Design the sequence.
């Protein structure tokens, strides 16, 4: 896949794997009369440093400007 962000192109893949999620992490939010189903939880993401940096800065998903898709780095899931 090829992305154009910050006036340049990025190539590569981003793998997202759930690590620690359960049904209680599923959130339903109505935003501008649209139902959005979102998931909180812990995920392992893999990709090039460049793609990972972009994911941390821009977020993941289609509703980032509305506050969805925020990402925080957690080193040890067990202590979280």
Sequence:
């Amino acid at each position: 896949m090829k992305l154009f962000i910050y006036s340049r192109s990025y190539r590569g893949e981003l793998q997202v794997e759930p690590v620690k999620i359960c049904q209680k992490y599923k959130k339903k939010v109505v935003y501008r009369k649209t139902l959005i189903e979102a998931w909180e939880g812990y995920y392992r993401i893999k990709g090039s440093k460049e793609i990972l940096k972009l994911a941390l800065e821009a977020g993941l998903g289609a509703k980032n400007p509305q506050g969805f898709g925020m990402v925080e780095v957690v080193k040890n899931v067990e202590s979280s």
Q: What stands out?
A: The radius of gyration is 14 Å. The chain has one helix and six strands. The beta strands are 2-5, 8-11, 15-20, 26-31, 34-39, 42-46.
